[in-house]
Amino acid sequence: NAGVTQTPKFQVLKTGQSMTLQCAQDMNHNSMYWYRQDPGMGLRLIYYSASEGTTDKGEVPNGYNVSRLNKREFSLRLESAAPSQTSVYFCASNHFITEAFFGQGTRLTVV
Amino acid sequence: RKEVEQDPGPFNVPEGATVAFNCTYSNSASQSFFWYRQDCRKEPKLLMSVYSSGNEDGRFTAQLNRASQYISLLIRDSKLSDSATYLCVVNHPADSNYQLIWGAGTKLIIKP
Fold first, then answer.
1. Could you tell me if residue B72 is left (phi over 0), alpha (psi between -120 and 50 degrees) or otherwise beta?
2. What is the pLDDT of residue B9?
3. pLDDT tens column, B76-89
4. Which of A96, A99, A102 shows the shortest C-beta gap to B43?
């Protein structure tokens, strides 16, 4: 069972570079989420998608864009990376009121 | 007030002790409740779903009190391997769907 697959696992960017984090789930879940987690902090919601074709801002959306390409895939794009975006990024998915499943995370460093 | 609040940590307890975590939520329409465990810088993993009747899995017991809007997690006979951050999460209606709301987590440190 693949569950939630996130790529890449690690990435180093220079300030101003752009990149896209990919996330795919094979559980036919409606909802997908992108979180960031800074050291010693809790999960902070960047964007979520309740269904294919819909996206909504979370707590910390500035500097990010998302795309729900289809039911399986939800990508997160950093258009112009900044050092403040150095963090661990997690993608998750769930179906209505069921539990969430997470990808293994992307450790992003912006220098 | 945060939508989901957990006990501030860290909890430092000796091996073999019993430890209890509490979590309160503000939305009375919340539908489902979970406890997750997160090891350092790894993805959160489901520990237990929480049912209104309470549920037990080995050394772990979870309880839900809808009237008072809190959930709890009890760990008995704690092991060194229980050291982790424990996250409470609540699922409540949002527009025509549901949204997960996470607590900030409580760090547990088990000492030998």
1. beta
2. 87
3. 999 999 999 999 99
4. A102
Residue B34, min C-alpha distance to chain A (Å)? 7
Nearest-by-CA chain A residue for B86? A42
Instruction: List CB contacts of B45: < 8 A, sequence separation 6 or more.
Output: A102, B36, B37, B38
Residue A10 one-letter amino acid: F
Distance from CA of A28 to the nearest CA of B (A): 16
B43 at A interface, C-beta within 8 A: yes
Are the C-beta atoms of A97 and B92 separated by less than 8 Å?
A: no
| Paired strand residues for B60 | B57, B75
pLDDT for residue B75 is more than 70: yes
**CB–CB of A105 and B34 under 8 A?**
no
Nearest to B47 by CA among B25, B67, B32, B62: B62
CA A13 vs. chain centroid, Å, equals 17
* C-alpha gyration radius of chain A: 13
Nearest Cα residue to B88 out of B74, B107, B99, B104 = B104
* CA nearest to A76, candidates A102, A106, A100: A106
- Answer yes or no: are the C-beta atoms of B72 and B60 closer than 8 Å: no
- Answer yes or no: is pLDDT of A1 > 70: no
pLDDT tens digits for A2-40? 799 999 999 999 999 999 999 999 999 999 999 999 988
Nearest chain B Cα distance for residue A92, angstroms: 9
